[in-house]
Each structure stands twice: as C-alpha cells, then as structure tokens.
Automatic annotation (TrEMBL):
PANTHER family: GNTR FAMILY REGULATORY PROTEIN (PTHR43537:SF44), TRANSCRIPTIONAL REGULATOR, GNTR FAMILY (PTHR43537). Residues 12-80 form the HTH gntR-type domain. InterPro entries: GntR_C, TF_FadR/GntR_C, Tscrpt_reg_HTH_GntR, WH-like_DNA-bd_sf, WH_DNA-bd_sf. It comes from Vibrio gallaecicus. This is FadR/GntR family transcriptional regulator. Keywords: DNA-binding, Transcription, Transcription regulation.
Amino acid sequence: MSTFSLVEDSSRRIHVQIARQIARKILSGELQENQKLPSEMNLCEVFGVSRTALRESTKLLSAKGLIESKPKVGTRVMPRSQWHFLDPQLLNWIQDLEDTKPFLSQFLGLRKAIEPEACALAATNATVEQRKELSVLFQKMTMAAESYDYGSWTINDHLFHKTIFLSTGNQFYVPFGNILSTIFKQFIDHSAEGGRFCLEEHKAIYDSIMTGNAPQARIASKGLLDDENQKLSNIELAIA
C-alpha cells in the first residue's frame, strides 16, 4: 500500500496538503483506478490530523473527480474519465509529479485542437485595441528573444496567447485562454532556460492576425504547434 507522510502545519491549509499528497499518488498511478483508500481512521493516524481536516481534503478531491467517498463503503479512486484535468489546482498537482511527460503530450494535443481556430477567429474579430496589445506584446517578445531574456519571453508569451483567445469574439474561448495560461505557467516556464525561441513562428501568427488573414493565421498556429517545435524531454518544451 502507498505510504503517506505526516502533514506539517504551514502557510498551506492542512486539508490542502493532505489532498495534494493523495492526488499525486492517484495522478502518478501509484493509487490505481477503483482502488480503495485506507480507512478514515488509518488516514487520520498516518497524516496526524483530525477527522475534520481529512474530510475537508476528501471533499476537495471529490470535487475534482479523483475520488468517491460513500458511508459504510469507503473511499475509492475514480476512473480517469471522471478527473477534472482542466482544474487549475489539479494542474498544479500534476506539475509536482516526477514524470509529467504524458501530461505535457496530451496538453499539446489540446492546444493543437483549439489554438489554430482561435488564431483564425482573432484575425477576423480582434478589435483595434486588441491588435495594439498584440503589437506591444510581440515587440516585447522580440526584444526578449534578441537579448535571451527567458523571464521576459515567458511572461509576454503567456499574455500573447491569452490576448489571442480574448480577441476571438467568442466568449466560450475565454475560459480556454485562462486554462492554457495556467498550464503555460505550470509547465512551459520550466522549459525556458536552455530552450529555443520560436520567434519566427510567433511572427507568422502575429502578421496574419494583424493583416486579418484568418486562413494564414490558422496555418501559422499549426506551424508553431508542430511536433518538431514542441519536442518533449522530461518536463522540457521549446519555448512556445
């Protein structure tokens, strides 16, 4: 059976610390789908916490679709189909895992499905102010790439892609922009040092949006997300 460790009192709320430990074991596969967790009494003893704190943690995990807890039956791990992968806190817990490569690969698949159409819509629907904002951000990205300023690049890269989603004119794309921004911060920041800047690929997207060329914006986005530009190595990606 998987081992847990005592929870230390810190700035983090205790029930969140407990939930994070359990979630990491579920996400890593150490705790299998449909596997039962130890009894409430055993978990309280292992973590060194009260039943109140443990129950708060199970509520948190249940809300993310990771576990199901029933009276007199116990708590079991839910199938992966029930996990709320787009939950920002769950993404944070995934980032803590030793092997994030499978999640990064699936994240890239999500981007390939969503971003090209977002770029095409932005080319058609971006307002004057949004185009100005993209221009400022791309200028900052260019300066960052030329000076190898990885910190500035990642900050403005996040904002560049988020602004594109905001520029689609479709409110249903806005949440995806926020989600992708969260994933960028959790994963892609780790790839900054030693990565390569995809400046030309971003320029192709930028030029297409600024000229209102939706088909070309779609093609340019697919070019950025090409597997050769997004090589995965442990937790590293090209700077995208």
